[in-house]
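> tool_call: predict_assembly(chains=four)
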Amino acid sequence: MEQPKGTRRQVQKAETRALILESARTLFGTQDYDRVTIRGVATQAGIGLGTIYKHFPNKLSLLAAAFSDDLKRLYRDAMATVPEDRPFKAQFVHISKRFFTFYTTHFSLSRAYLSHLFFYEKEWLDQINAFDEAYVQKMSELIRAGQDKGEIRPEKDADVLAMALLSNYFFVLANCFLREGMRDPDQMADMLAMLIEQTLL
Amino acid sequence: MEQPKGTRRQVQKAETRALILESARTLFGTQDYDRVTIRGVATQAGIGLGTIYKHFPNKLSLLAAAFSDDLKRLYRDAMATVPEDRPFKAQFVHISKRFFTFYTTHFSLSRAYLSHLFFYEKEWLDQINAFDEAYVQKMSELIRAGQDKGEIRPEKDADVLAMALLSNYFFVLANCFLREGMRDPDQMADMLAMLIEQTLL
DNA sequence: CAATTTGGGCGAACATGTTCACTAAATAGA
DNA sequence: TCTATTTAGTGAACATGTTCGCCCAAATTG
């Protein structure tokens, strides 16, 4: 009978990878990004230092891999639970607040991730851009629905507005990292709501 | 007669600092941020490694110090040459394009600077926030003038709009780092113009 | 002017992300 | 089944940002 998990080597590799990711999740979730060392992750996982680099090209990729499932789930959940009968502003705040909550509860981790965004290699960037585009497209749909409901001026270009939305979203997020006083999801959502009220509606 | 430059020690320290900054400007201007090593800066400046840390707390501060004069001059020039008789959009594009040109001609340097923004200590952040606030205030003035001229809806809050402007500005800038196709100042200015057309005017 | 303190300059030492040559076990090929 | 090849696993070695203790000339004190 054929093993669905592949060869023995593949199975073992997958197990090692799981060990690394578990250790990484624990450590990154506990201490600041800079405080977490690759050696620490290796030790806690019970494997050698070099092994980690057989699975992940660098520290940041390890971080990203350790939380990519969480982020994907967060994205799916946020989109799936959008209240369809509420006005556009409420819908957008709903989505944004979910993400803001994640960022503030994983503060140091998110900061490291976003900060290194600009240095990603092409492969990663493509993935991120794809993510962004999906987001923008979803927002476009919501905006068009808002235009149909008469909440948003119909002459505006929904795609451009969606981009502006993403822009405001990142701006609020950046503010959260730059100003100590802006690290509460509710406060961030308020700021975002204020911005889109003056620019979108 | 009293020396205006202070004690001999202060003069020598200032000279050393100037040597470091000159070396840093040369190296950071020539190669990527990561390729520039503190040892390299020290060697080129003809001083010891540890000396640099008597003048700058870390590599990024050195980078910032090396180009802070350029940036201040850029800011002053950009603001001083705003065409007063042109419409708001042209004024904003004028300012933004100056900055975009600087960023694209000092690409690696700007990327490192912006990326590390989120990790600054309080002192630096205060300085940056002050910078931002000055920018927002200036934008507020231009927006109000635009409202008086009838170009921008008068019922909008100029301060919030200025914040949205800053948000769009950073968004375009981030795009320049994330997408290879967006590294031309004219193109960036176009994207910015498109955004504010749909959100501000 | 002598004694003491200060602080700039210095490079060894340290921490840590990353690379590399090596081993051995798994796999493929004969 | 035996041999060759591949590759996960490994830790020493490397590169580099940063810290530390030392030195000594300048500044300060008395």
